């Protein structure tokens, strides 16, 4: 379930800039960092997963921003 929330957080951060949720003590946060270097079609998102005060995972992901855009946006 935490993995599903993390994937949703990545997609929502692409669209809206920031997204977070919690589930049974886990906290998932994602924030868009802006376009990747030299390519406007990609964007960089930082993702953090913690359990209580312990950071379980932290990473930066470069994603295809075109997939996050709404069809009529």
Spell out the key features of this protein.
alpha+beta; 1 helix
Distance between the termini: 30 Å
Q: Calculate Rg over CA atoms.
A: 13 Å
Helix content: 10-25%
Structural class: alpha+beta
Q: Strand portion, in percent?
A: over 45%
Identify the quaternary structure here.
Answer: single chain
Low-confidence stretches are none
**SSE ordering:** HEEEE
Q: What is the helix tally?
A: 1
Give the spatial strand order of the biggest sheet.
1-2-3-4
Largest sheet: 4 strands, antiparallel
Number of E-type strands: 4
Query: Taking all residues together, what is the mean pLDDT?
Result: 82
Shape: elongated
Report on the structure:
- By secondary structure, the chain is an alpha+beta fold.
- Helices cover 21% and strands 51% of the residues.
- The protein contains one helix and four strands; from the N terminus they run H-E-E-E-E.
- Strands 1-2-3-4 form a four-stranded antiparallel beta sheet.
- A hairpin with a 6-residue loop joins strand 2 and strand 3.
- The radius of gyration is 13 Å and the shape is elongated.
In brief:
This protein is α+β, with helices and mostly antiparallel strands and 73 residues long.
Write the layout of secondary structure elements.
Layout lengths: L1 H15 L1 E6 L2 E10 L6 E10 L2 E11 L9
Antiparallel strand pairs: 1-2, 2-3, 3-4
